[in-house]
């Protein structure tokens, strides 16, 4: 079955970057000149996804406004003959079919994904976390997952290798059989293990391709730690039931914009890519670095 749908959970409170997220969604925090969520929607569209469902919650209206048609701005840009900017703005509201579902209480990532069930049915679908940007313009990460799904036809968790000191921050997979260079059948995964208990260095990082069976496990799922319904628990239940799940080590640079340092890094690195900001930012960083090194002496 062709993968045409994707879910972006974006209903979390974003407590790690308060107070910025007190009245605005973290998914709308700006990376250079676009909200981070737009980078994710563009990745999905560039991967061939046609329908996107965004799980929203309180204080998230700006998400809907951003992807909507904006009459006043478009008219102004037309009158001012700002063609390039007008095209950029028109592109935002026309690039995909975007639907919204509210998660009234953010009871966890699993609970957010369950909200998409009526929209997904039993089709395979991509999950892209609203606070994880993966930069790979040549081969968008959702497209990589779709290609792997088309080859193996089972649920996939997107992973990347992390350093030993970081394994305790993530869900770490236990691969049991390699299918090809980047793809492994997994047997288990462990949430935030100590390094001595980690079954590998491969962490689940913000991208999944799941088949509709996941909803059964989310519905039957218990409330996990922190009083939340966890996606990882549902995937584990699937594995226990004998369903095959594979891990795929995706290619691309990932930014976790859900924490302060990740947000800063993304702004600097995307600022160095953006042709309008690149030269000025380089100059600024050069000066700052020189001053910093001088002060070290
Ligand atoms: P996070 O756990 O990183 O988001 O969830 P959070 O809860 O907003 O983070 P902190 O710890 O309070 O800072 C990953 C993604 O899943 C969404 C979030 O919006 C984020 O994009 N999410 C999380 C939901 O949609 N609903 C939830 O109940 C939890």
Structure summary:
This protein has 297 residues and is of the alpha/beta class.
Please characterize this protein's 3D structure.
The model has no long low-confidence stretch (mean pLDDT 93). By secondary structure, the chain is α/β, with parallel strands linked by helices. The chain is built from eleven helices and 13 strands. The termini are far apart. It is globular and about 60 Å long. Strand 9 and strand 10 form a beta hairpin. 39% of the residues are buried. Residues 9-16, 27, 55, 103, 106-109, 111-112, 129-131, 258 line the site of uridine 5'-triphosphate.
**What count of domains describes the coordinates?**
2
Beta fraction: 15-25%
| Class inferred from helices and paired strands | alpha/beta
CATH class of the largest domain: Alpha Beta
Blueprint (SSEs and pairs):
Layout (H helix, E strand, L loop, with lengths): L4 E5 L20 E2 L2 E2 H11 L4 E6 L4 H6 L4 H9 L3 H12 L2 E6 L6 H6 L2 H4 L4 E4 L3 E4 L5 H12 L2 E7 L9 E10 L2 E9 L10 E9 L3 H7 L10 H10 L4 E5 L3 E4 L3 H14 L4 H19 L1
Parallel strand pairs: 1-4, 1-6, 4-5, 8-12
Antiparallel strand pairs: 2-3, 6-11, 7-13, 8-11, 9-10, 10-12
Helix pairs in contact: 3-4, 8-9, 10-11
Bound molecules: uridine 5'-triphosphate.
Uridine 5'-triphosphate (UTP) binds next to helix 5.
